[in-house]
C-alpha cells in the first residue's frame, strides 16, 4: 500500500508503523505546510515525496492517507481526502467543534470512503484488559465509571503552544479529554446524552513568563525540571483554556460517569474506577507491570486487598503497544474493510460530549443535552461502513 501523511508534527512518529516496505506498506508522500515539517519528513523518510500542496497528494494515486494535522484542521483536510476516495485515518479528536466532526462523518457517509479515527487507547493494554473483565460479567452490569486524569506534563505539553488557545482546541476538556471520554463510553457501553462541567484556569493563567514558541517544538523545551507549575517559563502568549476541569455525564443506557482532569499534578497517569452490580474494578497505575484490582466480595473492613489482581500487559511501540496495533488495524481496514475496535461514531460522541461540557463549564455549570447522530448514519458506521 502506498500511504500519504498530511501533517508531520506531534504525531508524525506514526510513520514508523506505516513505513514497512517489506511488509506491504510504505509512506509514499508527505504533505506539510511548514518548512520544518517538510524538512523533517525528507530527513526521516528519504524515499517519500514531500510537498506543501494538498492537491498534489490527492492526485498522487495513493491507497490511503493519515491526517495528522493540528486538531482544528482535521475536518478541513479529512473532508477533502474522503471526497477524493482516499481511505482516511484521522487523528483524535475527530475535530474540536461538533459541526466539524459531523462534517467528517457526513463526508465519509456520503462518499462511502472508509474512515478510521485514531483512538489508540482502545488498543492500550490497561483499557483492553479492563473491558475484558467487564465483558466477562465479572462485576455485573456497569452503573458508574469514574476517571481521574493526572496530567503531570500539562505545562510542557499544553500551555506552551497552540493547545493553550480556545481557537485551536475549544478546551482541553475536549482536546485532551476526548481520549478518556471515549474510554468511559466504551467501558460503560453507552454514549453521553447529558453533561455538565466546572473548571478554572487556576495556575498557568498567573504565570507571567510568556514566549511565542512557534519556532520550537516540545522536545526543545520539555524538562522534568520545569517544576513547580507556577515557576514554568515561556508559556504561550495567549492562554484561555482551563487547566483543571470536572465533568459529569448521564449515558443513554442509564449509567453515570465523571471525568476529572488536572494539568498541574506532579504525577502523570490515569485512574479508572468502574462499578457494576456485582463488584468494581480500578487500575493502580496504567502501564506495564501495574495492576487492575478487582473486588467482588462484600466487606466492612475499609480498604482491603482485592479479590483478584490483574497485571497490565506490555507491548512493543508507543502507548504500551497501542500505536502499532492501531496502524495495523487501519491498514487492514483500508485494504479489505471489516469491523474495527475504534469507531467513527464513538469518536464523534466523545467530541460532542467534550464540546457540550466546555459550554456548560463556561456558562455556569448547568446540564446540557448532547445531540445524537441520525439513525441511518449510526447504522452505516456500526455495520463496518457497509450499506
3D structure, described in words:
The protein has 387 residues and is an alpha/beta fold. It folds into two domains: 2-119 and 323-342, Rossmann fold, CATH 3.40.50.720; 122-317, Dihydrodipicolinate Reductase, domain 2 (2-Layer Sandwich), CATH 3.30.360.10. It has helices at residues 15-18, 35-44, 54-58, 74-83, 98-111, 125-135, 154-158, 166-169, 172-175, 177-188, 218-221, 318-336, 344-361, 375-382, and strands spanning 2-6, 26-31, 49-51, 64-67, 88-91, 115-118, 142-150, 192-200, 244-251, 256-262, 269-276, 280-284, 291-295, 308-311, 368-369. Strands 14-13-12-11-7-10-9-8-15 form a nine-stranded mixed beta sheet, covered by helices on one side. The protein has a six-stranded parallel beta sheet with strand order 3-2-1-4-5-6, with helices on both faces. A hairpin with a 3-residue loop joins strand 11 and strand 12. Helix 4 runs parallel beside helix 5, helix 5 (98-111) packs antiparallel against helix 13 and helix 10 (177-188) packs across helix 13 (344-361). It is globular, with a radius of gyration of 21 Å. GO terms for molecular function: nucleotide binding. Residues 128-282 form the GFO/IDH/MocA-like oxidoreductase domain. Residues 1-119 form the Gfo/Idh/MocA-like oxidoreductase N-terminal domain. InterPro entries: Gfo/Idh/MocA-like_OxRdtase_N (IPR000683), Gfo/Idh/MocA_oxidoreduct (IPR051317), GFO_IDH_MocA-like_dom (IPR055170), NAD(P)-bd_dom_sf (IPR036291).
Amino acid at each position: 500500500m502506498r500511504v500519504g501523511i498530511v501533517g508531520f508534527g506531534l504525531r508524525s512518529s506514526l510513520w514508523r508503523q506505516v513505513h514497512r516496505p517489506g511488509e506491504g506498506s510504505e509512506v509514499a508522500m508527505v504533505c506539510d505546510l511548514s518548512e520544518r515539517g517538510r524538512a523533517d519528513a525528507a530527513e526521516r523518510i528519504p524515499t517519500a515525496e514531500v510537498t506543501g500542496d494538498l492537491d498534489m497528494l490527492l492526485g498522487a494515486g495513493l491507497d490511503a492517507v493519515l491526517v495528522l494535522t493540528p486538531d482544528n484542521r482535521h475536518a478541513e483536510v479529512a473532508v477533502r481526502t474522503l471526497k477524493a476516495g482516499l481511505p482516511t485515518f484521522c487523528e483524535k479528536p475527530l475535530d474540536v467543534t461538533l459541526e466539524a466532526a459531523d462534517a467528517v462523518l457526513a463526508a465519509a457517509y456520503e462518499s462511502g470512503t472508509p474512515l478510521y479515527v485514531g483512538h489508540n487507547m482502545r488498543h492500550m493494554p490497561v483499557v483492553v484488559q479492563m473491558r475484558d473483565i467487564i465483558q466477562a460479567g465479572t462485576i455485573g452490569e456497569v452503573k458508574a465509571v469514574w476517571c481521574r486524569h493526572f496530567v503531570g506534563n500539562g505545562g510542557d505539553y499544553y500551555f506552551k503552544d497552540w493547545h493553550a488557545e480556545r481557537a485551536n482546541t475549544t478546551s482541553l476538556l475536549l482536546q485532551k479529554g476526548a481520549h478518556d471520554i471515549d474510554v468511559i463510553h466504551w467501558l460503560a457501553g453507552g454514549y453521553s446524552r447529558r453533561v455538565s462541567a466546572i473548571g478554572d484556569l487556576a495556575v498557568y493563567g498567573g504565570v507571567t513568563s510568556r514566549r511565542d514558541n512557534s519556532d520550537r517544538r516540545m522536545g526543545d523545551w520539555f524538562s522534568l525540571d520545569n517544576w513547580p507549575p507556577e515557576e514554568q517559563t515561556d508559556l504561550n502568549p495567549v492562554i484561555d483554556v482551563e487547566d483543571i476541569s470536572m465533568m459529569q455525564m448521564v449515558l443513554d443506557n442509564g449509567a453515570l460517569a465523571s471525568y476529572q482532569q488536572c494539568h498541574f499534578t506532579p504525577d502523570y497517569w490515569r485512574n479508572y474506577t468502574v462499578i457494576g452490580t456485582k463488584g468494581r474494578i480500578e487500575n493502580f497505575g496504567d502501564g506495564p507491570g501495574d495492576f487492575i484490582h478487582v473486588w467482588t466480595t462484600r466487606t466492612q473492613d475499609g480498604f482491603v486487598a482485592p479479590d483478584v489482581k490483574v497485571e497490565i500487559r506490555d507491548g512493543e511501540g508507543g502507548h504500551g503497544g497501542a500505536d502499532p496495533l492501531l496502524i495495523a488495524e487501519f491498514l487492514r481496514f483500508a485494504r479489505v474493510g471489516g469491523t474495527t475496535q475504534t469507531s467513527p461514531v464513538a469518536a464523534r460522541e466523545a467530541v460532542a460530549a467534550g464540546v457540550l461540557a466546555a459550554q456548560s463549564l463556561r456558562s455556569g455549570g448547568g446540564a446540557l443535552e448532547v445531540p445524537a447522530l441520525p439513525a441511518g448514519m449510526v447504522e452505516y458506521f456500526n455495520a463496518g461502513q457497509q450499506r
